[in-house]
Design goal:
It is a single chain. By secondary structure, the protein is α/β, with parallel strands linked by helices. The chain is 39% helix and 14% strand.
């Protein structure tokens, strides 16, 4: 049954106003309970093959995930961070180079730039989407720029066309950080392989999640795929023959089996996330809550549902007192992190990113939420908004 879209529906749920419902921001156990037997069967089969590192399960997942994201190649690795690192190495990024990226993301996006010896150049965001601002990217390009890393934050595609045009015009590599955007579409095309390469994370909290750490690099470039496959396995071209110094970035066989099982369910999970987000959006718009803009030409897969509030700690506390958990992704913009203090940005240099990090609040978002829970979350948030309108300006 579709989620309700009219406030009048709440009138039939009187218990919402008097009974506290405990709703987590994320509950991994619900998904695992539903798929436990299916996954355990796959793991038992893999155990019988003793294919614990790479192997048939990983290879099958690579083929299936490449097809799902409409890419020619998928290279399974041990984390999304490793996938980003390999993509930068394939782009030839090295010490002395600069790589432009957003200040509003998880630190791994910047760390991988540092791994190569290059310098991250942080730019501001488009306040309407929280994604990297192409105008800011253009201003930041210098003779040392080698690549651009847009992030599809919260599963919402970044504005890729102007970024791809900038990359092509300036001879730069565009690498997509799609670690939160499994299955998202930009202008009808799956994100991930629209530039030189893209990276996905299968960390347990992601839309498609492993039972541990895992990731993937996707690309349409044969050279990039071949290099990534070599680098993930100590630079081997065949067993014990090493053409270059590589890394131990291999995906475990168990994770390939888990991901292969879960991938079959991802389309229905994505549809449910979109459904929940549509309900949230319809209810919160009624009280003027600030939310991120969706482009009708694209498809956001809602890894998170973010809203913006002032006096965030108080709002979180009020929600928590009514049983509704929330999370903050991310509380400090990267240019303000101590790890990158040496770059000299300082508070006030990227105001849109700073304002987003100061105000962002993420409501519960996972496919196993029940209709009653979604209604309760929305009702509770609307109630808090009505009591403290100044927090939602």
């Amino acid at each position: 049954m579709p989620l309700p879209v009219k406030l009048a529906r709440y009138e039939r749920i009187g218990a919402l106003t008097s009974t506290i419902m405990q709703v987590p921001q994320l509950d991994l156990k619900r998904q695992d309970r539903a798929l436990r037997e299916e996954i355990l069967d796959a793991l038992v089969r893999l155990s019988g093959q003793a294919a614990f590192i790479l192997g048939e399960a990983v290879e099958q997942f690579e083929r299936d995930f490449a097809a799902y994201v409409e890419a020619k190649h998928c290279v399974g690795v041990n984390s999304g961070t490793s996938a980003l690192h390999l993509a930068l190495l394939a782009a030839g990024v090295s010490p002395g180079d600069e790589v432009i990226t957003t200040a509003n993301t998880f630190i791994a996006t910047a760390e991988v730039i540092s791994y190569t010896g290059a310098t991250p150049v942080f730019v501001d965001i488009d306040a309407a989407t929280a994604n990297i601002d192409p105008v800011a990217v253009e201003r930041a390009i210098s003779p040392r720029t080698r690549a651009i890393i847009p992030v599809h934050l919260y599963g919402r595609p970044a504005d890729l066309d102007p970024l791809l045009e900038l990359a092509n015009r300036n001879g730069l590599a565009l690498i997509e950080d799609a670690c939160q955007a499994h299955g998202a579409r930009y202008r009808g095309r799956r994100v991930g392989a629209l530039g030189l390469a893209g990276a996905f994370s299968f960390y347990p909290t992601k839309n498609l999640s492993a039972w541990g750490e895992a990731g993937a690099l996707v690309t349409n470039d044969d050279r990039v795929a071949a290099l990534a496959r070599s680098l993930r396995t100590h630079g081997e071209r065949r067993r014990y023959f090493h053409d270059r110094v590589g890394y131990n970035y291999r995906m475990e066989g168990f994770q390939g089996a888990v991901l292969g099982t879960k991938l079959r369910h991802l389309p229905q999970w994505t549809a449910r996330r979109i459904e929940i987000a549509g309900f949230y959006r319809g209810k919160l718009e009624e009280v003027g809550v600030e939310m991120l803009a969706d482009d009708s030409r694209d498809e956001c897969v809602y890894h998170q549902f973010a809203v913006y509030v002032d006096d965030r700690d108080h709002v979180r506390s009020e929600l928590e007192s009514h049983g509704v958990a929330s999370a903050i992704y991310y509380p400090v913009a990267l240019h303000c992190q101590s790890a990158y203090a040496g770059l000299g940005y300082g508070r006030g240099s990227l105001p849109a990113a700073e304002r987003a990090c100061d105000r962002v609040l993420c409501l519960p978002m996972f496919p196993e939420l029940t209709d009653a829970e979604v209604e309760y979350i929305a009702h509770t948030f609307v109630t808090v908004a009505a009591r403290r309108p100044s927090a939602f300006l």
